[in-house]
Amino acid sequence: MSTAFDVKIYWKVREKEETKHGKIVLAPHDRFRIGLGESQWVSDGATLWEFDQSPSRQVIIRNLASCDPTQLPSRLLSKYLTRYSFKEKGTKGNNAEFSWSADSSSDSQKGEARRISFTIDSKTAVVQELAVTDKSGNESTYTFHATSFGPAKASLFSFDIPKGARILDERQ
C-alpha cells in the first residue's frame, strides 16, 4: 500500500499549529518507508533506519524487534480502529464518518485519546481522514490521498546512508 498524507497538528499548550506532508509505503512483514518533512523511517523487516536530514544529519540504526510493536505503521491505524467503539456519524457524499469520544463510562486505560474520528470511502473502505485529540488536548488530523494498493519495489525498503551523515548504530 502507498499513500500520501498531510498532517495538521495543533499543540494546545503552545497554542501553535504545524502542517507537514509525507508519504507512506507499506509492505508485508513490517517493511515500510515513511517520509515526513525532513525525516525518514525505513524498515526492511529486520532493521529500522531513522534519518533526520536537518539539522543533525543523523542516522539511527536499530533492530526492528527492539522497537515498540504498537508504534509500527502496520499497527498504528489498526490501534485506533480496533481499540475503540465507534459510532457512525453519517455520510458525506461517498464517505462515511465515524467517531468516538471519551466519557465517564469510557475505560481511561484504553489509550491516549480523548476523541477520534475518521472518514472512509464507502465503496473502497479506504481511510480518507483520521483526527485524534490526545489526553493533553493536542489535535492531529491526517488527510490521506493518492492511496493505492499493489506490490512495491524491494529497493524502497533499503536505506543508503548519506555521505557525511552521523551514524548511531544501536543494534546489538
What does this structure look like?
This protein has 172 residues and is mainly β. The protein has a single domain (2-169), classed as Lipoprotein localisation LolA/LolB/LppX (outer membrane lipoprotein receptor (LolB), chain A). The chain is 6% helix and 52% strand. The protein has one helix and twelve strands. It has one helix spanning 73-83, and strands spanning 2-11, 16-27, 31-36, 39-44, 47-52, 58-63, 87-92, 95-101, 113-121, 127-134, 139-148, 166-169. It has a twelve-stranded mixed beta sheet with strand order 7-8-9-10-11-1-2-3-4-5-6-12, covered by helices on one side. Strand 3 (31-36) and strand 4 form a beta hairpin. The two termini are 31 Å apart. The relative contact order is 0.22.
The gyration radius over C-alpha positions equals 18 Å
CATH architecture tag: Clam
SSE topology string: EEEEEEHEEEEEE
* Topology, number of strands: 12
CATH superfamily: Lipoprotein localisation LolA/LolB/LppX
> What average pLDDT do the residues reach?
88
Give the CATH class. Answer: Mainly Beta
The tally of helices reads 1
Can you give the helix content as a percent range? under 10%
Distance linking N and C termini? 31 Å
* Secondary structural class: mainly beta
